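Suppose a colleague, Dr. K., hands you the sequence of a protein chain of 368 amino acids and asks what its three-dimensional shape might be. Before reaching for any lab equipment, you can write down a predicted structure in token form. Begin with the sequence itself:
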Amino acid sequence: MPKIVNSWNEWDPLKHVIVGKADNCCIPPAEPATDAKIPEDSDMHGIDGPRSEESIIKANIQLDNLSKILESRGVKVDRPTPLDFNQKISTPDWDNGTMFGCMPPRDVILTLGNEMLEATMSYRSRWFEYLCYRPLIEEYFNNDPDMRFECAPKPRLTDESYRENYLSEDITVDERLKMVAEKRFVTTEKEVLFDAADILRMGKDLFVQHGFTTNLKGSDWLRRHFPNHRIHTLNFPGDPYPIHIDATFTPLRPGLIINNPTRQLPDEQREIFKKNDWEIIDAAQPAHNQPPPLCYSSIWLSMNVLVVDPKTVCVEETEVYQCEQIDKFGFEVIPVPFRDAYPFGGALHCATTDVYREGDCEDYFPNQ
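The predicted structure, expressed as tokens, is then:
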């Protein structure tokens, strides 16, 4: 039987991937996890319910086009099975008016080696999102005898998992940044919490962002779950809304990372990269000064790119400065129209998750 699942890093040649869908996506009602994320000037405030059919169609056109581009490069593409996200969900501890969607599989599924791991997730609206990927994961499990199918401990997400009244409406950006610098986030240490998009895979080393969606207990669980790997917890004190690492810290190939210049990795956390001769270079400025309408994410989705192989990178086509920078690094840049998909969960890295990349588990950081 063939080997189906294998991926150890963010840059080896991509051969099989999951690309998300925008079908049925909703803007969920406010909950403790989302209240802290939405900026004061965002048009998301006070809006919830199904996204417009027009916006869904536009997003799916771009997601389908990404799939075709990857297939033209010899990459097998699978797609999730959307749920009816516009329905009330509940557990014994809480209920929520709707779910979210299944455009960003990177948030939910972590592939490491021959294992696909369902993350805990830290939003109530995304508690059942793993169900969209179960048909695919079950298929891989049935057809690959070496594939490991794992699920992190499902959190209860009671009020104890969040700081009460974490952010008031009149808090300043400086006050937000002070809280982030002090590592006081909306999530508590009550239970294990992590989103898969807070984890970067670099062979034997995993770099995990501690922020709004992943707590220290989540990092510790990953350390225990992957005992053959080294887990490094990172923080980016310049980010007032630290959610998911892939618009902040983006490895392009062994030895090269672009870092959001407004969210610098602290000097003491740079040491492991310096000791191993890695370059950390400021990412190019975004081409846009604001995100698309009804978008959760920042303008720094510009650096949320998808590495197809060590010489080829997909970049959103209107992010011309990021395209130019990556071209100067010596990569072939594939421009991909994707801004209509941004509001549904992010950019090109977010909208995909690996099933198979060529290559083995290498040690890129021998000096520690």
